[in-house]
Write a structure and sequence with these properties.
Helix content is 30%, strand content 25%. The strands form 2 sheets. A 5-stranded antiparallel beta sheet has the order 5-4-6-7-8, covered by helices on one side. A 4-stranded antiparallel beta sheet has the order 3-2-1-9, with no helix packed on it. α2 runs parallel beside α3. A hairpin with a 5-residue loop joins β4 and β5. It starts with a helix and ends with a strand. It is globular, with a radius of gyration of 33 Å. It is found in: Secreted.
């Protein structure tokens, strides 16, 4: 009886040890798999971060050199979505900011510091051009001027207003017509024509929207004004 009892004890201990060994092996395999998955995910995340394209100010396609201001702007879309003007990663005007309107939208920026001076919009369909002319005449030398149309920016424009905008560096302002889309970046005191200007004519045969052309967008780097 004692021999049989001892044999049972040996068998029980052997079964326990075998069970413990099997469980430990399974647990180790699962731990290895979990750690493997963790390291794999970490490696994939690292690769994703390294291959993600860099983001530049205002979402432009490349970084600006030193002593330049990054900007990006878009005209309005028909009479539904307002224009947007961004400078140095700061949205100056947009529908979200609720500071845009029908006509010509204007942002004035200090050419040395990049600080915002003023934002306005002037209704060139149902408004009066006189306040716009007064505003243009009051712009100080060295000021960066960004403009974008929304809906109609031309009907009330007269020769005086067009000339004042041309003196800021615009070429297309002379030809801006009813419901054309136009964006422009120039400056008071500029000696040459600005390279920053886009203009699409309102043409029923090519319009993207019914009665309006497609949105025009523009980005670039504005040289900082030096003393």
């Amino acid at each position: 009886m004692r021999v049989a009892g001892a044999a049972k004890l040996v068998v029980a201990v052997a079964v326990f040890l075998l069970t413990f060994y099997v469980i430990s092996q399974v647990f180790e395999i699962k731990m290895d798999a979990s750690l493997g998955n963790l390291f794999a995910r970490s490696a994939l995340d690292a690769v994703a971060r390294s291959t993600k394209p860099p983001r530049y100010k205002c979402g432009i396609s490349k970084a600006c050199p030193e002593k330049h201001f990054a900007f990006k702007m878009a005209s309005g879309a028909a009479n539904v979505v307002g224009p947007k003007i961004c400078l140095e990663d700061n949205v100056l005007m947009s529908g979200v900011k609720n500071n845009v309107g029908r006509g010509i939208n204007v942002a004035l920026v200090n050419g040395k510091t990049g600080d915002l001076i003023d934002t306005r919009y002037f209704d060139m369909w149902g408004g009066n051009v006189a306040p716009f002319i007064e505003f243009l005449k009051a712009i100080q030398d060295g000021t960066v001027v960004l403009m974008g149309t929304y809906d109609d920016g031309a009907t009330k424009l007269n020769d005086e207003a067009r000339q004042l905008i041309a003196e800021l560096g615009s070429t297309s302002i002379a030809h801006l017509g009813f419901r054309d889309n136009w964006v422009f970046c120039g400056g008071k005191g500029i000696k040459t024509k600005s390279p920053f200007e886009q203009h699409i004519k309102n043409n029923k045969d090519t319009n993207k929207y019914e009665g309006w052309p497609e949105v025009v967008e523009m980005e670039g780097c504005i040289p900082q004004k030096q003393d």
